[in-house]
């Protein structure tokens, strides 16, 4: 009986590769979207193409997506598989201008899965930190021709954005081993949710001309309130820990499939809803994370919806797995400082804020410069609605929200507003709000003040949830910004 071999492949440098699209030009938007689609599909197409080229069964594909893949191969196919990956790695290196590295490790299926996984991980780490390891072992032969950045950008911006919207077929060819071909190639696969299809969330908001996708300026002006676009990124908390606790290869594959299908399926379904399909474009959905961009109001609503669905998945689909690892999700939203800000720069800022959220508290949302637990989002949304209602229904001037924002220490202000005594804030609010002195208005005014300042009105630092609700309300009623946006 032939010995089985586990082969683990990883794509390194994904974040750096996406940041290469930060050039301040209008076409960088489609370049980044295309790069995201390419990286997403690479870890799905490459293992399938390898099996097809070697004449092996599709069932040998264990897990794929999220920048990595796991295969089970017969020992006699090991050399051919590594030769296939070496050729693909060289083409990937050329197409990404050296930003991406495809590395892999192989080991015999001997011992318990935790032992096998450790051998694979150790080998992957060795190759990660020794870039010349593949060359030394004869598995790396880079192309001698120089990179072609203009052709590469055309491939990302046209083939993987425009043409991919028109078809649900991707392919692979040995002539271009590092490319994901659209509607062609020696081997082809469908994109979708069927058994043999590749799960892929590729929704793009239609433009004013439905034949082309909407750009970020168009998405900004589709927001209800101030025309602003942003990037939303999410990541499962301690996903790696959850995978490392798998006791068998079957459990490892099952977990990988659960998370990948959740993000690909839920994002695609959510973005097809009326409130999202014209406002949001998906950048990628990975094995444990995702990124989308679009109108700011739709992104906040989408974030809370995905979090609710993930919480339901944790309660129902992951209840048999002990421990909290991998059962919560954190997200971050970064708003563009201007309409023409490079998409890649705002994407990078969203990643920075996501790291802040995950390092400060798990299961939270970094929103409008504050990190809030998900359990406080409903309360924050209600307070935002109350603040907006004071402007829209009771006639408070829109600048009232900016004046209230000036009570926060970090907000630039034209004049000093004392906040040592709670009655001074009450008096200031009374002067600002020239609205009918109705009982309902008075009740709402007092409720808003208590929610913003807490029980102890004399403290200078107001509630973080109040600050988020206040900035959220200002975006909703489109008041001029006061706080200088973070440069990205």
How do the strands line up in the largest sheet?
9-10-8-11-12-13
**Total domain modules:** 3
State the CATH topology of the largest domain: Alpha-Beta Plaits
Listing every helix as H and every strand as E from the N terminus to the C terminus, the arrangement reads EHHEEHEHHHEEEHEHHEEHEHEEHHHHH
CATH architecture of the largest domain: 2-Layer Sandwich
Helical region count? 16
Which residues sit in consecutive blocks of at least 5 with pLDDT less than 50? 135-148, 411-423, 432-436, 457-461, 482-488
CATH top level class name of the largest domain: Alpha Beta
Structure summary, number of beta strands: 13
Query: What is the terminal-to-terminal distance?
Result: 58 Å
- Global Rg: 25 Å
Global geometry: globular
Overall structural class, as computed from helix and strand content, comes to alpha+beta
Mean pLDDT comes to: 83
Quote the beta fraction.
15-25%
Biggest β-sheet strands, sense, barrel: 6 strands, mixed
> Percent of residues in helical segments?
40-55%
Write a structural description:
The longest helix has 26 residues, at 28-53. Helix 2 (28-53) crosses helix 6, helix 12 crosses helix 16 and helix 13 (399-405) packs antiparallel against helix 16 (464-477). With 488 residues, this protein is of the alpha+beta class. It contains 16 helices and 13 strands. It is globular, with a radius of gyration of 25 Å. Residues 135-148, 411-423, 432-436, 457-461 and 482-488 have low confidence and may be disordered. The strands form 3 sheets. A 6-stranded mixed β-sheet has the order 9-10-8-11-12-13, sandwiched between helices. The chain has a 4-stranded antiparallel β-sheet with strand order 2-3-1-4, with helices on both faces. Helices cover 46% and strands 17% of the residues. The protein folds into 3 domains: 4-137 and 149-190, Alpha-Beta Plaits (2-Layer Sandwich); 216-367, Reverse transcriptase/Diguanylate cyclase domain (Alpha-Beta Plaits), CATH 3.30.70.270; 378-477, no CATH class.
């Amino acid at each position: 009986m032939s010995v089985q071999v586990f082969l683990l492949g990883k794509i390194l440098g994904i974040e750096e590769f996406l940041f290469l699209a930060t050039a301040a030009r209008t076409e960088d938007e489609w370049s980044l979207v295309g790069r995201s689609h390419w990286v997403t599909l690479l870890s799905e197409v490459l293992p399938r193409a390898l099996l097809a080229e070697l004449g092996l069964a599709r069932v040998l594909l264990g897990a794929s997506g999220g920048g990595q893949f796991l295969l089970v191969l017969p020992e006699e196919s090991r050399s051919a598989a590594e030769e296939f990956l070496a050729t693909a790695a060289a083409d990937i290196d050329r197409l990404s201008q050296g930003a991406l590295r495809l590395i892999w490790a192989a080991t015999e299926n001997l011992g318990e899965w935790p032992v096998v996984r450790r051998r694979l991980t150790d080998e992957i780490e060795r190759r990660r930190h020794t870039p010349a390891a593949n060359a030394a072992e004869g598995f790396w032969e880079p192309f001698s021709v120089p990179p072609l950045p203009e052709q590469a950008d055309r491939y990302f911006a046209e083939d993987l954005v425009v043409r991919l919207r028109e078809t649900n077929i991707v392919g692979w060819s040995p002539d271009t081993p590092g490319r994901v071909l659209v509607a062609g190639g020696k081997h082809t696969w469908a994109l979708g949710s069927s058994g043999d299809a590749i799960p892929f969330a590729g929704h793009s908001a239609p433009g004013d001309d439905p034949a082309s996708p909407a750009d970020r300026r168009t998405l900004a002006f589709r927001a209800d309130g101030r025309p602003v676009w942003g990037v939303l990124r999410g990541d499962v908390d301690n996903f790696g820990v959850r995978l490392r606790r798998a006791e068998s290869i079957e459990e490892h594959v099952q977990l990988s499939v659960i998370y990948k299908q959740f993000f690909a399926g839920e994002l695609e379904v959510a973005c097809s809803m009326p409130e999202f399909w014209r406002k949001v474009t998906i950048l990628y959905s990975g094995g444990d994370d995702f990124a989308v961009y679009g109108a700011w109001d739709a992104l906040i609503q989408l974030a809370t919806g995905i979090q609710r669905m993930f919480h339901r998945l944790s309660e129902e689909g992951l209840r048999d797995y002990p421990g909290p690892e991998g059962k919560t999700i954190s997200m971050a939203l970064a708003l563009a400082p201007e309409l023409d800000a490079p998409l890649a720069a705002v994407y990078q800022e969203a990643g920075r804020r996501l790291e802040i959220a995950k390092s400060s508290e798990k299961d939270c949302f970094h929103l409008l410069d504050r990190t809030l637990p998900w359990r406080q989002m409903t309360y924050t949304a209600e307070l935002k609605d109350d603040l907006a209602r004071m402007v829209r229904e009771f006639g408070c001037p829109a600048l009232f929200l900016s004046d209230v924002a000036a009570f926060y220490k970090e907000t630039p202000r034209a004049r000093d507003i004392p906040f040592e005594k709670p009655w001074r804030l009450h008096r200031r609010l009374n002067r600002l709000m020239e609205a009918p002195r109705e009982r309902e208005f008075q009740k709402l005014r007092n409720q808003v003040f208590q929610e913003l300042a807490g029980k102890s009105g004399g403290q200078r630092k107001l509630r973080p949830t109040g600050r988020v609700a206040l900035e959220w309300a200002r975006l909703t009623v489109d008041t001029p910004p006061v706080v200088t946006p973070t440069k990205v």
